[in-house]
Structures are given as C-alpha cells and as structure tokens.
Write a structure and sequence with these properties.
Layout (H helix, E strand, L loop, with lengths): L4 H9 L2 E6 L1 H8 L22 H6 L2 E9 L10 H18 L4 E3 L3 H9 L3 E8 L9 H8 L2 E5 L25 H13 L2 E3 L5 H10 L5 E5 L13 H9 L3 E4 L3 H4 L4 H15 L4 E3 L19 H10 L4 H18 L1
Parallel strand pairs: 1-2, 2-4, 3-4, 4-5, 5-6, 7-8, 8-9
Length: 333
C-alpha cells in the first residue's frame, strides 16, 4: 500500500510510539545493529529483523519501547538481571555510535525534544519480574539506567505471581505479597506497571491497587478474537479506570487473521468499550512471533493509520493511538 497524504501528515504531527519490541535481545545475542537498515531474514518475516532506526524513520515513528528479555529456562533463577543489563549495555553502545540518530529518553518532555532534534527515541521496559531475581532493590538499579516499565510476568511464575499461560500457571492465584510490594516500588520509582502476560486474577489485583496508570504493552482483546493471549472487557475497563493504555499486538495468531483489518478490529473494540484514551500500539516486533504481513516492520504504520481513518476513526483519535495516549502515561507515571 501507499499511504495517503493525510496519514503521512498525521505521523508528522504525532510520530508513533510502539510499546514493545524485543530488538535488544538480538543485539545482545548476535550483534544486531539498530542503526543499519535490515530486511527480515526468515520466511514470513518471522522472529526478528523487524526494527531499526532507518525503518522507524520511514514509518513515521518517534520512539520504540525496547523490551528487555531474560529467559528462566528450566528453573534458572540466576544471571537474569545480568541478561537485562547486557541488553541495556548493547543499547548504550548503539547510542554512542550515532547519538543524532537514536537517543535514550525517560520522559515525555525528553522524547519531544529528541524528536524535534530529528532523532528517534529509545525507551526501556523489562519483560517479567523474574529478572529482579527476588530482590526489589534490583529494580532501583534498572530504573537508574532508564527502565520505564516492568512487566510483572512473562511465561513462567515468579515471586510476583502467575502467568496467563506457561509454567506455573494457576488461574485462581493473584499477586503475592511480594508482588504487591513490587507494584508499590514501581510506582515510587516512576516505573510503569505492565500487565502483559499476567493471569487475570493478578491483573485485576494490580489494577485495584494502582495509583498511577498501568499499561498492557502488547496484547490482543477477547472481544475481537477468542485466544488465551488476549484480555477481556473487564480487564480493559480495569486498566482504563486507572488511566492506563493497551498496546495492540501485530501477531495474526492472536488477532484472528492476517492483514490490517484485524488490527483495526482490536483497536476499535478498545475504543468502543473504554474510549479513546486507552488504545495504543504494541507490536511485539523482534519477538518470537510472525507479524501480520502489512506490519512486518515500522514502514507499514502509515498504512495502519490509513486503515483506521477509512474505518471511521477520527484523525484526532488516531493521533492519540499513535502517540498521545503513550505520552500521557509517560507524563502521569
């Protein structure tokens, strides 16, 4: 597709912010260069090679939240914090190579200044509290390095609670006492609580106690497609009632089909249920997914903007989905 002038103008007005890409995992593992223009190397654009600064710029982006991944395979509990620090180290090295191209930002004001200077913004989020290795003070160290959100769970149970799917799944159990202390510590440090991957009971517990907006960095919604990875309307309302946002994932398996229409369907369901302050983008680029073909990388974002406009979403609301809602949460957290 070729994006319309209206869509391109919207991206100039509201350079897009995406809530989740696992790019730095590949930088740590194989030396992936975020400054170099890539093409996804695998069939169907699977798994990686999705995000880099040239394609962010071409797709009308302003910033990418980079997810920091640590994988507690076979019960491994040590070395997880180090894995996160090594991904931040990889970003730091990339920033030094071209500070005019990519800048680490922590606040909405810093991101605005970064984009006005012509650079892309990099924000950081951790995927799973297992990376803290059971020590709340570890979060302080991550926050000092620029981490802006913490996902409480990933695909295995940890000290905070249980996953929606994966090892240690227990649907009836909510946040642990340690998990509640962790939510409080996040809010005291200005670290946004991310509710992707957590089970529903823990999800609602975290929303109930939240005093600052939480996010769901990358998810689908059950009202648009039935899948274990997606959240229901009660969860949408719990997040929205605390001023939070929901980033819609770009994975057809969770969306219920390939193409732009399923992404629009999920975003519109959020709009219909909880209003225009809640929807956002949460691609899961460079994660272990096959992305929808039109959104195989950031170059497709203006086409998504066109699809939203054609579906009757007002330009003002599209701008909030692209950027405004994420910026508000950065300011309020």
């Amino acid at each position: 597709m070729t994006a319309s002038d209206e869509a391109l103008a919207l991206h100039r007005e509201a350079p897009a912010i995406d809530f989740h890409a696992d790019t730095l995992m590949w930088s740590r593992w194989v030396g992936y260069d975020v400054h170099k223009h890539h093409e996804p190397p695998l069939p169907l654009n699977a798994l990686g090679g999705h995000v880099d600064v040239p394609r962010m710029r071409e797709g009308g982006m302003g910033a990418q939240f980079f997810g920091l991944v640590s994988l507690p395979f076979m019960g491994r509990t040590r070395g997880l914090a180090r894995a996160v620090h090594e991904q931040i180290d990889a970003l730091d090295a990339a920033l030094l190579r071209d500070p005019a191209g990519l800048q680490l930002v922590k606040t909405a004001d810093e991101l605005d200044a970064c984009n006005k200077a012509g650079a892309m913004g990099a924000l950081l989020g951790i995927e799973g509290a297992h990376a803290l290795e059971g020590d709340l003070d570890t979060l302080d160290a991550f926050a000092k390095r620029g981490v802006r959100y913490l996902g409480l769970l990933h695909f295995s149970a940890n000290e905070a609670g249980c996953p929606a799917y994966g090892t240690g799944r227990r649907d009836g159990e909510g946040l642990t006492p340690w998990g509640r202390k962790l939510v409080e510590r996040c809010e005291s440090l200005g670290v946004i609580v991310d509710l992707a991957h957590i089970n529903k009971r823990g999800f609602l517990d975290a929303c109930e106690m939240a005093t600052k907006p939480p996010v769901v960095s990358h998810t689908g919604v059950l009202g648009a497609f039935e899948h274990w990875r997606n959240i229901d309307d009660e969860q949408l309302k719990a997040v929205a009632n605390k001023g939070g946002v929901i980033g819609v994932i770009f994975c057809p398996r969770f969306l219920g089909g390939d193409g732009l229409a399923p992404v629009v369907k999920h975003l519109k369901h959020i709009l219909d249920v909880v209003g225009e302050d809640a929807p956002a983008l949460g691609s899961d680029w460079d994660g272990f997914i096959v992305p929808t073909r039109p959104l195989a990388d950031p170059r497709g974002l203006p086409d998504l903007t066109d699809a939203l406009l054609q579906a009757g979403v007002a330009p003002r609301v599209v701008a909030k989905i692209l950027r405004g809602n994420a910026m508000r949460v950065l300011r309020e957290s």
